[in-house]
Amino acid sequence: MESYTIGQAARLLGVSVDTARRWADAERFPTRREGTRRMVDGPDLAAFCVEAAQEAAEGEEAAYTSARNAFPGIVTGVKLGTVDAQVEIQAGPHRIVSLLTREAVEELGLEVGARATARVKSTSVFIDRV
């Protein structure tokens, strides 16, 4: 069974190490000691990730879409072309780049610093194990 340090868990959750420690101290997910390190077992971290995502979704306004892979984040870059545009969003540890029309970017008011959600719908999803 794979285990993670609090720092690794924080990176996977997309939060600071301090936040992950506070969640562990509040017993939101179980930890154990290996020497001086606090460790989180993979299945426990996975269960907490699902729970945290559901809690976050409950606090958001319902989206009317069939795309379920949502990455809420902040716009970190916009490159406008004559007809097309490239928008970059930082969603936790994920950097997402989307190509869309300039008109869509202007209608949505996308600019650096704006909150946005990238939704991904695909027929092929590739998974790499690190």
Strand content: 25-35%
Radius of gyration: 18 Å
Task: Estimate the mean pLDDT confidence.
Answer: 84
For the terminal residues, how far apart are their CA atoms? 14 Å
Largest sheet: 4 strands, antiparallel
Going across the biggest sheet, name each strand in turn: 6-5-4-7
Order of helices and strands: EHHEEHEEEHE
Number of helices: 4
Give me the count of strands: 7
Kindly state the percentage of residues in helix.
25-40%
Shape: elongated
Alpha-beta classification: alpha+beta
List the helices and strands and how they pair.
Layout: E1 3-5, H1 6-13, H2 17-25, E2 32-34, E3 37-41, H3 42-59, E4 69-80, E5 84-91, E6 94-101, H4 102-108, E7 115-120
Antiparallel strand pairs: 1-3, 2-3, 4-5, 4-7, 5-6
How does this structure look, described?
This protein is an alpha+beta fold and 130 residues long. 32% of the residues lie in helices and 35% in strands. The chain has helices at 6-13, 17-25, 42-59, 102-108; strands at 3-5, 32-34, 37-41, 69-80, 84-91, 94-101, 115-120. Strand 5 (84-91) and strand 6 (94-101) form a beta hairpin. Helix 1 packs across helix 2 (17-25). It starts with a strand and ends in a 10-residue tail after the last strand. 11% of the residues are buried.
Write a brief structural summary:
The chain has 130 residues and is of the alpha+beta class.
